[in-house]
Design goal:
With about 250 residues, the chain is α/β, with parallel strands linked by helices. It has a single domain, classed as NAD(P)-binding Rossmann-like Domain (Rossmann fold, 3-Layer(aba) Sandwich). It is about 45% helix and about 15% strand. The chain has helices at about 20-30, 40-55, 70-80, 100-130, 150-170, 195, 200-205, 220-230, and strands at about 10-15, 35-40, 60-65, 85, 135-140, 175-185, 240. The protein has a seven-stranded parallel beta sheet with strand order 3-2-1-4-5-6-7, sandwiched between helices. The longest helix has 29 residues, at about 100-130. It is globular. The structure holds NADPH dihydro-nicotinamide-adenine-dinucleotide phosphate. The site of NADPH dihydro-nicotinamide-adenine-dinucleotide phosphate has 31 residues, from helix 1 and helix 4. NADPH dihydro-nicotinamide-adenine-dinucleotide phosphate binds near residues 21, 66, 90 and 189.
């Protein structure tokens, strides 16, 4: 099992203060990595770092707003050597496409797509100059494959992220940087809680998931550890969907 170990690796998880990012950071740390999580708010960042440390893992925190180029440069410089980057920071707001304005589009696409690209670029520059290689994992979404009404900006950002994953995997393979994605299915988090308050939506959606339940954050742990590890050394440019079978059945 040593090829799944992340002992001695440094992982940077953007948007690790809560939800999926926090769970991914916890999984990487449990596999042996030193983790640095990021967030925009110092109080919630420190609380999340404290929670990870209380669980006995090595964790650090950095302030980062992925929509700001200067903030990315600062955080990546402060992070030091990064072997694993998890591009997780993201945002979503459901709004009918006829009502989407430029500000909403720019927030969603600027965070989920542009932010992820420039984080990947900043980290990859260091990996290239150190000739160290590394693993980048982009948190994609089912909206790369299915149309969800009201999610045009989000789907555009995540579909772009999937294309970016494939492009960077081809471009940076020569530097031994593997670029993959994970595509979580339906997970209740702060970002998605509004859906789960709707009983009718919950009942209907659950019936569409072959494994019969919504995702639990722990369900994502194995995939991110695997793709980060030596076990996945010949895997790049792939997106692994963790969705209880949803995509395969529609
Ligand atoms: P949460 O809202 O719980 O967490 C979002 C995280 O992103 C927070 O840590 C937040 O940090 C951070 N973040 C938001 N905007 C920025 C920004 N501009 N700069 C830096 N960090 C930012 O959502 P989830 O955990 O659900 O989502 C995490 C990722 O998973 C997202 O990319 C999302 O699209 C994706 N995803 C989620 C699914 C789900 O079902 N929940 C399904 C598929 C994909 P803070 O506010 O502290 O700065």
């Amino acid at each position: 099992m040593t090829s799944f170990s992340l002992q001695g690796k440094n992982a940077l998880v953007t948007g690790g203060t809560r939800g999926i990012g926090y769970a991914l950071a916890q999984a990487l740390a449990q596999a042996g990595a030193r983790v640095t999580i990021t967030g925009r708010d110092a109080v919630s960042l420190q609380a999340a770092v404290g929670q990870l440390r209380d669980a006995g893992v090595e964790a650090h925190g950095l302030i980062l707003d992925v929509t700001q180029a200067a903030s990315i440069q600062q955080a990546v410089a402060a992070a030091g050597r990064v072997d694993i980057l998890i591009n997780n920071a993201g945002t979503e707001q459901i709004r009918p496409s006829l009502e989407v304005d430029e500000a909403l589009w720019d927030t969603i696409v600027g965070t989920n797509l542009k932010g992820a690209f420039f984080c990947a670029q900043a980290v990859a520059k260091n990996m290239v100059s150190a000739a160290s290689g590394g693993a980048i994992i982009n948190v994609c979404s089912l909206t790369t494959c299915v149309g969800v009404p009201g999610a045009a900006a989000y789907a555009s950002s995540k579909s772009g992220l999937a294309g970016m994953t494939r492009t960077l995997s081809a471009e940076w393979a020569a530097h031994n940087i593997r670029v993959n994605g994970i595509g979580p299915g339906y997970f209740a988090t702060e970002m998605t809680q509004v859906f789960y308050q709707d009983d009718a939506w919950r009942d209907a959606m659950q019936k569409k998931i072959p494994l019969g339940r919504f995702g639990e954050l722990d369900d994502l742990a194995g995939s991110v550890v695997f793709l980060s590890s030596e076990s996945a050394r010949y895997i790049t440019g792939q997106i692994l969907y963790i969705d209880g079978g949803y995509l395969a059945s529609i």
